[in-house]
């Protein structure tokens, strides 16, 4: 489309008749219209006609400006060359072939879904290979086992500098070191290992309240269990606690249900497995120890007698342990409100983070090394965290 082909929308009025000048008494002249404008024409009409003429002249001047023409042409080009507008201009035979390509694309999406199902099977297979290492990790953390000298040997990046400094000072301070070693405390295992990870990771620390901290110090291990072969795709997070004063459960669980198939209504949106729902568990709190609720007192006035009494009631309380009582994804076609959708999406993201990052690389989140690596990477939304 060319600018020259465009019609302006400026208003047009019938051309005015020629205006002539007639002499009158004295040295002054006055412009008078010929017979086309009789004495009954109001001055406003003459002024409007004059303004319209000026507007047309201004429009002609604008349309002759090369910069204006270039800007208009660029705008027209951008409108006329959108993908959808281009597709609409194609012949029916070409559109028919495009539809065939879309059918092929849907079949590709279904093959991709099968690929991810096999990936899930591989994850299950290799999880079994990782588990003996994770079991030993738990033993070292809890103090049930002590690593050998070979197992505890680690070469740090600053090892050479540390060795040189140590050699210089070794002879002078050896006696002092021996005395200090004798007095140095030797706690069992690695105290507050998992609680320290919760504090280090912002995504988790935001959920932890001050009254959650004493409970999380009893956390001894976190495991990931994958669904059995032939079962719907899912994974379970297991939080293992030592005996404590807060609840009787030794294990708290959170199950995340997944789907790896294209949506029938929108198959082209498929990008891999996604978490679609989750289930928590019941926490058997000991009396007066439930941190997920708080007791408030409220005054209540009797309508008939006018007497006032004080009643107590329990209301929800912010706590990490609400993690085990998640919102349910709507399965009846009813949409959740915006806050609920955000809460559910955040829950899915946290579950994915435990599975993909925290559990496999726990020691690096304890030391903070993994957090530094994460900070150096561009943030991305994993496909498995999408909500339907």
From TrEMBL:
<protein>
    <submittedName>
        <fullName>Nucleosome assembly protein 1-like 4 isoform X4</fullName>
    </submittedName>
</protein>
<dbReference type="Pfam" id="PF00956">
    <property type="entry name" value="NAP"/>
</dbReference>
<comment type="similarity">
    <text>Belongs to the nucleosome assembly protein (NAP) family.</text>
</comment>
<dbReference type="GO" id="GO:0006334">
    <property type="term" value="P:nucleosome assembly"/>
</dbReference>
<dbReference type="InterPro" id="IPR037231">
    <property type="entry name" value="NAP-like_sf"/>
</dbReference>
<dbReference type="GO" id="GO:0005634">
    <property type="term" value="C:nucleus"/>
</dbReference>
<keyword id="KW-0539">Nucleus</keyword>
<dbReference type="InterPro" id="IPR002164">
    <property type="entry name" value="NAP_family"/>
</dbReference>
